[in-house]
Amino acid sequence: MENKFFTEKDLENLLGKEDEKKTSLNIIPVGISGRHVHLSKEHLEILFGKDYELTPIKNLTQPGQFASKETVTLAGPKSVIENVRIIGPVRSKTQVEILTSDAFKLGLKPVVRLSGHLEGTPGITIIGKKGTVVLDEGVIVSQRHIHLNEEQGRERNLKNGDVVKLRTRGIRSAILDNVSVRVGDNGYLDCHLDQEEANALGLNSKSYVEIVR
Amino acid sequence: MENKFFTEKDLENLLGKEDEKKTSLNIIPVGISGRHVHLSKEHLEILFGKDYELTPIKNLTQPGQFASKETVTLAGPKSVIENVRIIGPVRSKTQVEILTSDAFKLGLKPVVRLSGHLEGTPGITIIGKKGTVVLDEGVIVSQRHIHLNEEQGRERNLKNGDVVKLRTRGIRSAILDNVSVRVGDNGYLDCHLDQEEANALGLNSKSYVEIVR
Q1: Which end of chain B is more exposed for a tag (fewer CB within 10 A), N or C?
Q2: Secondary structure class of B41 (helix, strand, coil)
Q3: Across the interface, do A197 and B200 touch by the CB < 8 Å criterion?
Q4: Residue pairs spanning A and B at CB distance below 8 A
Q5: Nearest CB neighbour to A178, from listed B112, B173, B195
Q6: What is the pLDDT of residue A2?
């Protein structure tokens, strides 16, 4: 499999060979994220009205998560980005995930963080149909990470909070450091990269990468 | 220097220590490229008029190369991108360098290639002030590469056509495979990455990377 992408077929082939089971367990699919917003219930109501509920239009790979019909406008000191998708359901805290190029466009410092680690991150103005929210912090560039459930973690000898490396294939192949492991009750097995990381590595949503330690 | 970017100061510090000379020789600056177009004389004249000459507005790091005042529009099957900078001087063959995200936007397949290797690459329509050129091929996503001159190559035991790896630092650090070495008479020492690669690695135009083999 040198010098090309892992495909779903490669994985099928590998999974058929018992002696390559260990290798195949470490080969996992890629999930690619673009810019999006998670909203608290409070902020959703300011932006769209009291008791407003998001309208799911597409389920995402992580169970329970969905892309909603609703979008917002992000306004930074330098410019705005329209039609930014809201990911539901609502969360305890509002979080805006953008690409590094979005940060430059908006006039914000790109700060790479895991989801939920918002201390000291830039703020932004979020504009909805019915109102505006001014955040003091909460804008991150997503730090790459692997999602899996308890059993998948045990099979791979990985636990929540571990940091591993990833090997990718193809003409833009690389070994990526600092990949965080997030083990959750119902995590769907994949590695989350943002769109710029995927493009820089020549990966797409059908690609696979290999966990190395 | 673990876990942060190389800065110009890091390099100065390293260069001051004779016993780290070998390491320091392998630490080189990053040059970041966005989308741009190189034009043949023939195509420049179709796009801007007979005997037209490009107007330099900024010299680039590679000697003799400049950003010109003039821009063009790129039109693909799916959409257009306006205000794309022309890099002068004219070349023997027209070449369009875009980001992977540009390829998706335009509706083209992103094909990663070194400059000048255009066989089998997608075509595109280029629109200028006075005319339009329809290219059958010539659109590439730039393959990362290192520029240096003969003496810098000798010092580092690198020759034209070599392929090395690069180590980067910081929270998005990685080891990049398939980095081509281009030794030229008057090459300026740097490593060319495109804007998406730089963003994905957390690098900027003041960053340094390390050649590893």
Answers
A1: C
A2: helix
A3: yes
A4: 66
A5: B173
A6: 38
| pLDDT over 50 at B56, yes or no | yes
Question: What residue ranges of chain A have pLDDT lower than 70?
Answer: 1-22
Average pLDDT on B146-157 reads 94
Selecting from B178, B195, B202 the residue whose C-beta is nearest the C-beta of A172 gives B178
pTM for the full model?
0.89
Please count the other Cβ atoms lying within 10 Å of the Cβ belonging to residue B84: 20
CA distance A113 to chain B (A): 9
Query: Residue written as tokens 């409070």?
Result: A42
For chain B, where are the alpha helices, taking DSSP H only?
Answer: 8-15, 21-25, 41-48, 100-106, 150-155, 195-201
CA–CA distance, B213 with B207 (Å, rounded to integer): 20
Mean pLDDT of B74-103: 98
Q: What CATH number should be reported for the domain whose range is B8-32+144-211? A: 2.40.40.20
* Average pLDDT, rounded, for chain B: 92
List pLDDT tens digits, range B94-114: 999 999 999 999 999 999 999
Residue A73 C-alpha, separation from nearest chain B C-alpha, in angstroms: 20
Extents of the domains making up chain B: 8-32+144-211, 33-142
Q: Determine whether the interchain pair A171/B196 forms a contact, defined as Cβ–Cβ distance below 8 Å.
A: no
Question: How large is the average pLDDT for residues B22-35?
Answer: 91
B152 burial level (CB within 10 Å; 0-12, 13-18, 19+): middle
Q: What is the pLDDT of residue B18?
A: 54
Q: How many residues does chain A have?
A: 213
ipTM attached to this prediction: 0.89
- Any residues with CB less than 8 A from the CB of B191 and at least 6 apart, and which? B28, B29, B30, B31, B144, B145, B146, B147, B166, B179, B209
